[in-house]
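During the practical work, I worked with a single protein chain and the tokens that describe its fold, as given directly below.
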Amino acid sequence: MGETIGTKNKSIIFLFFLLLVGFVLILLNLSVRLEIREYRWYQFKKIEKNSIDILYIGNSHNMQGVIPQVIEDTLGLKGFTIGVPSESLKNTYFQLVEAFRTQSPQYVALETYSIDVNLTNEDGAIYFFWGAIPINRNVLNVITSQDDFSLSTNYDYFDLSRSHEKIWKTPEYLFYNFNYYILHKDNYELTKFLINDGYLPRNNPINKETINRINDVPNADLYNELDDETLFYFEKIIDLCTQHSSELLLFSMPEIRYFLNSPKRTVDYNSLSKEYAIPYFDLRNLDFSILHYADTNHVSYLGSLRATVELGEFISEEFKLPVNQNMLNHYNDLNIDDFTIQKNSSSIYSFILTNENGNNKNNLYQLCVIDPSKNYKFCNSSEHKSNVNFEYVEDGEYHVELQVKNENLPLTINQDIIFYLPEDTWYQRE
């Protein structure tokens, strides 16, 4: 009897210990900021049912490329951007299935980079999508979407199995659903990083090192063939949109490789568009400037603005939709085409933003130039000026902090820009 009581006591103590450890892990988890991708699904689930007119789907090219607010203001189509970085088309399909549970968009815009993702090497970040939805048949379909539920499948779909993840994130995922459904998510201060329609802007500037990495990669003149699995899910997306009476269109966001005339191998989307009778808009060859790119694959905030305006005009023409010309003019006014460096004297220069087709009289600018050593900061004297004078302190990489907004628009664009003195050809369009 004494041994039995002792065993029970040990069991109780062990159970209490587990509960204590769990509680501590929960507390630790609360101190870890929730991933922005997860918060985006939370935002999506809060949207009024069947109130979305257009869904933008795909991976980070889409998530960090399209500003739904712009198309809502110019075309009257309320939109939301879903998707996660490195998302393959298989992931895109399951995310779209989930989106259709609460929304019936008239249009679905698929950014094509998820078609180019090699499924055998990278299956996206669908594990971020799990905690944001109840366990339902779609989740089970994700688990069983491969022929055998193997270690490989676990590696693909469960974050903790992936070698690049840090073990300290374990509490976040063990107790994620507790966070998600019990606690009030508005306590997490993520809104300053994320616009309410799912768009996540890139504020960082592109620099010499990034350009050099691109130039080291040889040009590609051939097209990739669609592998069987990608084609399978592409056709399932088509069928899903047909089933929900949603018009599907394809678009490709700009990439700096095309700006540098150094494209990489991709699927032949023009042929794909013709074969399946799906409208396609290629933005990769837009007349962009270096300030419209954030890195090798993504556009900057200013690039997103420019690309989204162009995408909206394509949607308007393709589906015969009226344009709010007044709002379109305001967004064109907010656009920045390029910048120039003007020498005023031996040591005084001007950094000047240019907009060839817009009127910046309703724009407000906060513009500062920081020298390479970060010892000096030169700012514009008036928020109505799109230029700033600065002193040539030393050779090197100068940073520009830019904030611009138009008095007639809801957007405020924050972006960094880099230039070099003495001026050199640090990017070369072949």
